[in-house]
Amino acid sequence: NRVKIKTLLTGDALTGSEVIVMGWVRNFRNNQFIDLNDGSTNQNIQVVVALDLLDDATRKRITTGASMRVKGAVVPSLGKGQKVEVKASSVEILGDSDAEKYPLQPKKHSLEFLREIAHLRFRTNTFGAVFRIRHSLAFAIHQFFNEKGFIYLHTPIITASDAEGAGEMFRVTTLPTDNPPRNEDGSINYKEDFFGKSTNLTVSGQLEGELGAMAFSEIYTFGPTFRAENSNTTRHLAEFWMIEPEMAFYDLEDNMNLAESFIRHIIKYVVEHNYDDLEFLDRRLAEEEKQLPQDKRSEMGLLQKLEFVLNNDFERITYTEAIDILLASPAYKKKKFQYEVKWGVDMQSEHERYLVEKHFKKPVIVTNYPKDIKSFYMRLNDDGQTVAAMDILAPGIGEIVGGSQREERLDKLEERMEQMHIPAEEMSWYLDTRRFGTVPHAGFGLGFERIVLFVTGMTNIRDVIPFARTPKNCEF
Ligand code: 4AD
Ligand code: MG
Questions:
Q1: Where in the numbering of this chain does the Aminoacyl-transfer RNA synthetases class-II family profile domain appear (predicted)?
Q2: Which ligand is nearest to the Cα of residue 235, counting in written order?
Q3: Closest CA to 145 of 209, 203, 87, 95
Q4: From the CB of 351, is ligand 1 less than 6 Å away?
Q5: How many folded domains does the chain comprise?
Q6: Do 225 and 85 have their domain in common?
Q7: Per-residue model confidence as pLDDT tens digits over 54-93
Q8: In terms of domains, do 348 and 433 share one?
């Protein structure tokens, strides 16, 4: 009858029974009360150790961080904040924790400090909440697509193609790094590599996903992706997870509708299943924001923001409209933007955040971007200038989704690839989907950590992935 602490604390069913609980000591008070946590919930179970139960030597070993196994009776609690507690009949210390050396004390630590001891930070309330929510989001993602009949397709991590054509790839090679075999012109001879050609870690599973959609109609991928962009921001990782649905017989409108209902579904799931963790993070955020000047604080609390997203449609505007709004904005007139605003130039995060935080105050889907700032596979619109792209921008973050209707017309796609110097011979496998039974199709990619940021209200992407990979940061 080993029980998780969450089970103990929710519902009265166990009151009166004998249980075994195991976990780590958060705090030991008055030589009698242990706050024990096993990671199943932010709440600790209070374990009451009668003064005559343990000898002094054992009692001294009950320190913050120590692990233990407790046997006892579940009894109603007189203390406030909890319905039940465990009256211990036996306590066994499984692993000692030197109180002098243990970095986590029963007090609030800064996120910066916790990032430095990332190997222990799971044991804090904040990271406990964040990673339980991350787990729930992942589960809800599979649930959403499974219920809709999408096939979960595993696309390769090692690939020879650059899906985004952005060149920000980690090279995978089995050649010696100090003295690789060379071609006559001095370039590295990848023919002698294990794979016989130059390969890299995937930046996106989309192109392979399209192959799946052309057979299963609706697929999704959900896996790690890699970008060697050497940017130190609070929203970029070198290794991040992405969810990429790809659907045959969908146009841009269908794509937007799916993305919106998808995001709503997973937020709803977390609100229903992780309410206590969200409440904790809501309080945490409110406290953090108290330190900020009035005009930097969010207008809504975390739970309020999530409820708002569940109950309100996203705004939908074209790129051209977005640029017009920016050009007419007080921020532009007062020269508050660092980067240029001009039709044809990609929006920077400051522009995206202006649109969602100041102008619309809700998530926004921006469509029909200029073709020259988007990838080769996006479908050319009739104007010949824009493509059927869609980005979803979220308050506090900026871009969370990038997607498009795909160019299904072979001649148009080949023309675009040629303009962008993408070698068609190497992409013959991709072009085959347009040669044999091509159909209108669309898809998008949701950055998993970006949505975890949004749902948890955390502000640094390093704090929503268990082991962050960022420039100069790969300790373990
Ligand atoms: O906009 P991106 O580059 O689009 C694609 O990769 C498409 N192939 C997706 C598709 O249509 N199937 O990336 C998609 C999303 C971004 O909107 C962002 O949320 C996230 O992936 N993302 C990152 N997240 C964390 N760190 C990074 N370095 C990221 N780069 C992109
Ligand atoms: Mg993008």
A1: 131-466
A2: 1
A3: 209
A4: no
A5: 2
A6: no
A7: 999 999 999 999 999 999 999 999 877 788 999 999 999 9
A8: yes
